[in-house]
Amino acid sequence: MNTSGEDPAPKTGAQAVVADALDPARRPDVLFRVRRPAGEHVSAWWLVGAFVLVSAGVVFLFSFLPGGA
């Protein structure tokens, strides 16, 4: 058991980033994670809209490929 109060091994990499972070949800290596209050959820309509937009974009891009009927 370590009684000196020091870590037996220095923290490096991700452990060091997490140890120094004030709010882990807003670490510089996390792009899209957002910490929300309890009970607050993203509306399902955002996911439906994103699916429709991505699908429409894929169909639009496929229209540029030759060989269509």
Give an overview of the whole structure:
- This protein has 69 residues and is mainly α.
- The protein has one domain (13-62).
- It has two helices and no strands.
- It has helices at 13-20, 44-62.
SS summary, helix count:
2
Fraction of residues in H or I helices = 25-40%
| Mean pLDDT level | 77
Low-confidence segments, given as residue ranges, are: none
How many structural domains? 1
Shape: elongated
Number of strands: 0
**Biggest sheet, in brief?**
none
Order of helices and strands: HH
Radius of gyration: 23 Å
Strand content: under 5%
Broad structural category: mainly alpha
Report, as a whole number of angstroms, the end-to-end distance: 73 Å
Give a topology summary.
Layout: H1 13-20, H2 44-62
List keywords for this structure.
single chain, 69 residues, mainly alpha
In short:
Helix content is about 40%, strand content about 0%. The protein contains two helices and no strands. The protein has helices at about 15-20, 45-60.
